[in-house]
Design a protein that fits this description.
Layout lengths: L5 H11 L11 E3 L2 H9 L6 E5 L13 E3 L6 H6 L4 E5 L4 H9 L4 E4 L4 H15 L2 H23 L6 E8 L2 E3 L2 H9 L3 E2 L17 H7 L3 E4 L8 H5 L8 H4 L3 E3 L2 H4 L4 H19 L2
Parallel strand pairs: 1-2, 1-4, 2-3, 4-5, 6-8, 6-9, 9-10
Antiparallel strand pairs: 6-7
Helix pairs in contact: 5-6, 6-12, 7-12
Length: about 280
């Protein structure tokens, strides 16, 4: 007995013709700083429902419920906010992201490591919340600031050698976007070959190698704690490092330079260039 195929065909066509687009998020929990700043700068700050304890920019974002540190989160608080999207960053928040997914939450994890990827995330966030034109404008603004910084650096009489320290024990050199910002600001990163390492252990530094490469400027930003400048100045065997001899050891606020978003490409970059320029003209 023949089975009629037309009804099956019609049902399939009807099913395939249905396309359900994901809804724009209305309540977003941001577990790192940079996505908060981007959303506010896109005019979508009202969508931010919860933030990390480290959020600084803009000031009004500090009034939002705080639900996480960098590698820890209060999942009950996150769920209570009823977010329709949770934004995370990097492999360091993989466990947080996995737990949110297990709890039925929508999660997007970004892993930007370079200036170009930071700008790309701005565009991606704009697309997620329907602010594409605002995101494109923000990217253009950030790019122009980067160009202006590079033009200023082009007038420096020389490019000082810079050691950027992200952590003291074990010593970790700067991540890729930091290395790129040092270059744009007019300096020469002494560990450029390490900057592309995506894992922190790929950027471990031998103290003796810092001495061998003779930095003229040491910039330090220890994520989550203040830099102990006196400890760096007193490191054994570093007495003849030019930066140590000249006292050119300075902290860059980690909330500016170690978050891969607008702050790093603006105020963080300006702080880096300020130090490089002084050494370049010394």
């Amino acid at each position: 007995m023949a089975i009629p195929t037309q009804p099956i065909h019609d049902a399939a066509e009807e099913l395939l013709a249905q396309v359900t687009l994901p809804k724009r998020p209305k309540r977003i929990v941001c577990l790192t700083e940079e996505t908060v700043e981007v959303l506010y700068r896109l005019g979508a700050g009202d969508l931010v429902a919860g933030v990390s304890i480290y959020v600084r920019r803009p000031p009004e974002a500090r009034k939002k419920p705080r639900v996480s540190a960098f590698i820890k989160a209060d999942f009950a608080k996150i769920e209570a906010l009823q977010p329709d999207l949770v934004l995370c960053f990097s492999d360091l928040q993989a466990d947080i992201a996995a737990e949110c997914i297990k709890r039925g939450l929508e999660v997007v994890v970004f892993n930007q490591r370079s200036i170009s990827e930071i700008l790309g995330v701005v565009l991606a966030l704009g697309a997620l919340v329907g602010r594409e034109s605002e995101a494109a404008a923000l990217v253009g603004e950030l790019q122009e600031n980067l160009r202006a910084t590079a033009r200023r650096a082009a007038d420096f009489p020389r490019r000082p050698r810079v050691y950027f320290e992200e952590w003291p024990d074990p010593m970790i050199s700067g991540i890729r976007w930091v290395s790129e910002l040092v270059t744009l600001a007019g300096g020469e990163d002494i560990f450029p070959e390490l900057s592309t390492g995506k894992l922190a252990k790929e950027r471990f530094v031998d103290p003796a190698e810092v001495v061998r490469r003779q930095p003229e400027l040491i910039l330090a930003s220890w994520c989550g704690k203040r830099v102990k400048r006196d400890e760096i100045l007193a490191r054994p065997g570093w007495e003849d490092v030019p930066a140590i001899k000249a006292g050119e050891v300075h902290e860059i606020d980690s909330t500016l330079i170690l978050q891969p978003g607008p702050a790093a490409l603006t105020d963080g970059l300006a702080d880096v260039q300020r130090h490089i320029e002084r050494v370049a003209y010394r």
